[in-house]
Write a structure and sequence with these properties.
By secondary structure, the protein is an alpha/beta fold. Helices cover 39% and strands 21% of the residues. The protein is elongated and about 125 Å long.
């Protein structure tokens, strides 16, 4: 039954939401002519107006929104405020006919929830994220839930209490604009005893109004049904236009207005306007009804006049069910709601976390940030607040509109920050269980505190917490937090308390702090926190590996968000820095931010490389001419795990083998001594030639369009020229002359996937070392080639150059770190397995080059953006490389082939562009002839590699490909594995 109840309310709310949106979009949709908020004074009314202005894009444009303060800022009672509303409407319209008006009485001080005094309880948070993403308040919920009512009542005035949220289906309202109507919900008698309860008469009208009667009295008069429920007074009323006119007659003249709207008479909407409408009411009893102010002759005379104009009317009881009555009464009730009670409203979308960046904690939050490093105890609620990493917060605390940095917050306190109109700040601290209407603070007697501390807390006879001047003013919110905690220490007599500082400071009470509050600052703080929540959510999404693509899009960053980003980038490590840029690029659809991510990767890697470069002053040309030829490589396992930034964060694992193409080592570099004092670069396959007789152009790196970027990077990495300064003539004199560097890759198509460009780098380093007489180990070669690649900022991995430098099967690993150190293991496999692989391994040329596209941006972006499929595949690819080694060392070629197939599926998860229609068609055409397949390199074109089934020959594969692809370039390549 509970689920059905919740589902009914959930659907009713959805219907209201739909009508709310219709009221925004459709000109002719029935809506309120006026929505009027009553306020206790002009300052509160001003705050209401600014809150309404903040929401103007989310309110019907045809509705007039008004905030009306109590007359002269003095309390005139809820009845007096209602008469003020009627006066205003009559001035604007001259008649009440055909008017549809919503009045929300919201002029209280909110004494029992002081953190809501300044903005008004009406604009206090509701733990609900609206379907449009906005954080909700009571006012927002009123606008939504009441948006269907105008179509039900046609004309008249609906009055609501600003501290009660009503959840019901407006379609149940049956009212024909006669007299008044009271909207009542069923609540348990234990709840009813603390509120007003209606007793229903036989004809459906209210028989009497019972205010805060005991359970026994309620049962005795017949107000409790068989389910132990009563008809609770929700504070929601409907007055007909005729009744509005009758009430207006009480203030039609200035004299009448003065008699009925003043702080002495202080008429009550509920005690003075409702009582005469109940069937069993009598004038004699009416005189004795508890007033909102004090009993006096003026009130008695006013009640006589009210009785005369209202007694002819009756009040229909509208008993709505299912429905829910939620009273935001005290700080304790709000804390209990946020600490678990909110679960009762889960079906309505309510949650303990609304617009907040709080992870891995049971702390409740509304538009707040909680650092993952903060120490916060159980049952706490953060409201528009920021708790930083060094803070320590006790249990059962409410923090509202403050920043906490490294402070220690005691148990069971409320701390509420408030900026004053003069620019000062106060933080009001009090106990969660304190009632500001009483004279206790932290459950200690304030008069005794006043005596013990030898201070004067009050200027009048109102000795309550509400009026006690306790809270020091400060220039910043941080200073105000410190002053509030010092007050706590002073009151509790703690050793660290600074009594003299507290005594010397100008202080305010809860009341004066509320009256002097700056409404613009409240709105600005809300905006600030919303901005910071958004940015902290991004930071936590990065930390928790939530994909960038799943985060909410933004149009731009605010000033506060830009400042946050600037501070964060300065202290971020390599991993967070690059991801901040990438995530923002995705969220903002800003390619510049994405590119900044890649620049960060390149610059961090390059900076580490440049730092380790050393100039080799001992190098000398030792031969007139020297040539190095290297094979190509095929990647078998672990491809992409060697690519920055993946390898920098996780390390890499790769298995590859050297190959000959057309029986040749196609990568060739020749260095030749010349007599002229210059360096000449010549690349035959690229058809470029350059001569350099000064050093500066040789030291200029990082230009991706420089035709000699590779050669320059080689000389820098090998220490032949320094990274800055010096003279080329002096260097060449020491070397023993100038030289030419010839480089070419022969008979290998562009975009082959066989690692040609990186292997060319390796050939350059090896040739320079040997030409210059520089002793080296295999590890030296790997390290210098890696440095060379990083100087060029290609963004590529390290497996290709290792694959071509030395023959055979190599298992290459690195540990995480910006400075990658390669460990190369030459894998020994059985001779029979070598022969079997040589027989069954086939290289196939696709006849196409991969289309120009930003391959690295795509693949690295998916990793940096924490795409789950990419993260899984990259991790699995490394494991697959290790398993491949294991199978080959056992001589199990079929097991290896099966892993090659699995690797192909993983590769497509890393980069969907690695395959295309032609590649799939090639693999499909020879499917029954092979047991394993994989692209070479990044794929998308170039070469493919397959392992044949036992007994299948290359000739069979070639015939099948010729049969399908005829005279195209698709065909079996002349390839041989190089074992030695």
């Amino acid at each position: 039954m509970r689920n059905l109840y919740s589902l009914f309310l959930s659907q009713a709310y959805q219907d209201c939401w739909d009508d709310y949106n219709r009221s925004l979009r459709l000109r002719n949709f029935p809506k309120w002519d006026y929505v009027i908020l009553t306020a206790s004074n002009e300052q509160q009314a001003e705050g209401f107006r600014k809150q309404i202005e903040e929401r103007k894009d989310f309110l019907p444009k045809e509705t007039t929104f008004v905030a009306i303060p109590d007359r002269d800022g003095k309390r005139v009672g809820s009845g007096g405020a209602t008469l003020e509303v009627l006066k205003y409407l009559h001035e604007q319209e001259e008649t009440f006919d055909n008017l549809c008006v919503l009045v929300i009485h919201s002029g209280g001080d909110s004494k029992r929830v002081p953190q809501y005094s300044a903005l008004g309880k009406l604009f206090s948070p509701v733990p609900h994220a609206l379907p449009n993403g906005r954080n909700s308040t009571l006012f927002d919920e009123f606008m939504i839930c009441m948006s269907s009512v105008p179509s039900r009542i046609r004309e008249g005035m609906v009055l609501l209490s600003g501290d009660v949220l009503l959840l019901f289906n407006p379609l149940q309202i049956d009212y024909n604009n006669v007299g008044a109507a009271a909207i009542s919900f069923k609540e348990h008698v234990e709840t009813g005893k603390n509120h007003g309860v209606y007793l229903n008469g036989e004809n459906g009208n209210v028989k009497c109004c019972l205010q805060k009667k005991s359970v026994e009295v309620l049962r005795e008069v017949g107000a409790v049904n068989e389910s132990d429920c009563v008809d609770i007074d929700t504070g929601a009323l409907i007055f007909s236009t005729e009744m509005m006119k009758s009430l207006y007659s009480l203030i039609a003249t200035e004299e009448d207005y003065d008699r009925h709207v003043n702080e002495k008479t202080r008429l009550s909407l509920y005690a003075d306007f409702l009582y005469p409408l109940a069937e069993d009411s009598t004038l004699e009893a009416f005189y004795q009804e508890k007033p909102e102010g004090e009993f006096c002759q003026k009130l008695t005379e006013a009640r006589e006049r009210v009785w005369k104009v209202l007694r002819p009317y009756r009040m229909k009881l509208l008993r709505l069910a299912p429905a829910k009555f939620i009273h935001f009464g005290t700080t304790r009730e709000i804390l209990e709601l946020m600490s678990g009670g909110v679960d009762e409203y889960r079906e309505l979308g309510w949650s303990r976390l609304i617009g907040s960046s709080i992870k891995d904690s049971d702390t409740a939050g509304y538009n707040s940030v909680l650092s993952s490093r903060a120490d916060i105890s159980k049952d706490c609620y953060l409201e528009v607040s920021y708790v930083h990493g060094e803070a320590k917060v006790g249990e059962h605390c409410v923090l509202s509109y403050i920043d906490i940095h490294d402070e220690v917050i005691p148990d069971n306190v409320v701390m509420h920050g408030l900026k004053q109109r003069d620019g000062k700040f106060i933080v009001r601290i009090f106990g969660v269980n304190d009632n500001p209407k009483e004279n206790r603070l932290f459950d200690m007697d304030l008069e005794q505190i006043e005596k013990d501390l030898d201070v004067k807390l009050w200027l009048d006879d109102s000795h309550t917490l509400w009026s006690a001047a306790l809270y020091p003013e400060a220039d910043t919110i941080e200073e105000a937090v410190s002053a509030a905690l010092n007050l706590y220490a002073v009151v509790h007599g703690e050793e660290q308390a600074d009594l003299s500082a507290w005594k010397a400071a100008p202080k305010k009470s809860l009341c004066s702090g509320f009256n002097d509050a700056d409404p613009d600052a409240i709105i600005a703080w809300n905006r600030r926190m919303a901005d910071l929540v958004t940015m902290d959510e991004i930071a936590k999404a990065i930390r928790n590996k939530i994909p960038a693509a799943k985060l909410r899009k933004m149009k731009s960053l605010t000033k506060i968000q830009k400042e946050w980003l600037e501070r964060r980038i300065k202290k971020a490590d390599f991993s967070e820095k690059m991801r901040l840029h990438y995530y923002l690029g995705v969220i903002l659809d800003d390619e510049d931010e994405v590119q900044e991510c890649f620049r960060t990767i390149q610059s961090e890697v390059l900076a580490s490389t440049i730092k380790n470069l050393s100039y080799n002053e001992n190098a000398r040309i030792v031969t007139e001419k020297h040539t190095v030829k290297l094979p190509l490589r095929v990647n078998w396992g672990g491809g992409w795990s060697d690519t920055p930034p993946y390898c920098n964060e996780n390390g890499g694992t790769v298995l590859n083998v050297a190959i000959l193409l057309n029986g040749q080592k196609p990568v060739e570099v020749t260095l030749e001594k010349i007599s002229e004092k210059k360096i000449v670069f010549d690349s035959r396959d690229m058809d470029v030639h350059g001569e350099f007789d000064t050093i500066e152009p040789l030291q200029a790196t990082g230009d991706p369009f420089d035709p000699f970027a590779l050669q320059k990077a080689c000389l820098l990495a090998c220490g032949i020229i320094p990274k800055e300064g010096s003279s080329l003539e002096e260097i060449l004199d020491r070397l023993g002359g100038g030289f030419e560097m010839h480089s070419e890759v022969t008979n290998v198509p562009k975009g082959s996937g066989l690692g040609t460009s990186s292997i060319l780098s390796a050939a350059c380093v090896k040739a320079v070392f040997e030409f210059m007489g520089i002793a080296y180990t295999e590890e030296d070669l790997y390290a210098h080639v890696l440095a060379m690649e990083q100087i060029m900022s290609t963004g590529g991995g390290w497996q290709d150059q290792v694959g071509g430098i030395t023959p055979g099967l190599k298992y290459i690993t690195s540990m995480p770190g910006i400075d990658q150190k390669l460990k190369v293991t030459h894998v020994e496999i059985p001779e029979a397995a070598k022969q079997e692989l040589s027989d069954r391994f086939v290289l196939i040329y696709t006849g196409q080059r991969r289309l120009a596209r930003n391959l690295l941006r795509d693949v690295v972006g998916r990793y940096v953006g924490n795409e789950p499929e990419s993260l899984f595949a990259l991790e699995e690819i490394q494991k697959t490389a290790a398993l491949m080694r294991f199978e080959l060392e056992r001589g199990n070629v079929d097991g290896f082939a099966s892993l090659l197939d699995y690797h192909w599926e993983l590769s497509k998860k890393v980069d969907a562009g690695s395959s295309n229609t032609l590649i799939e068609q090639i693999f499909s055409s020879i499917e029954e002839l092979i047991v394993g397949k994989l692209v070479c390199g990044a794929g998308g074109g170039g070469f493919l590699q397959v392992i044949l089934k036992k007994g299948v020959t290359r000739q069979q594969v070639e015939e099948r490909l010729n049969e399908v692809f005829m005279d195209s370039l698709v065909g079996v390549a002349d390839c041989r594995l190089v074992w030695e």
